[in-house]
Amino acid sequence: MRVILRHDDSGVSEVIGTILILAMTVVLFASIIIWVTSIPTPVAGTRLEIDAAFSPIYDGAGNEAGANITLRHQGGESLPFGSTNVKFAYGFTMAVCLKYSIIFGIALR
Questions:
Q1: Cα–Cα distances in Å, from 80 out to 1, 5, 19?
Q2: 54 SS3 class
Q3: Cα separation of 47 and 33, whole Å?
Q4: Which residue, 54, 65, 81, 100, is the most exposed by fewest CB within 10 angstroms?
Q5: CA 65 – CA 68 distance, rounded (Å)
Q6: This prediction's pTM
């Protein structure tokens, strides 16, 4: 039995073109995946809902002697005792800033 082989290169360029397009797609997709995975994830913050009340304290002459600030935790994540800090600023600048630690509902300065 005799085998006759034809020497026809007409389909080779289509196959090579398809393989090249497939290779370019794979390389592009891999580089996009590497770029996306290199983006840092955002830092998760504590989300909570607080109700605040401010009532000034007056002395006998009618001058402001201080203030009572009440913060109530209405919902969201729980605040750990001893490591929760509440900062208050007086005026439009944060230069005068008092730092309080909340321990079992008692404000410590």
A1: 89, 82, 59
A2: strand
A3: 31
A4: 54
A5: 10
A6: 0.39
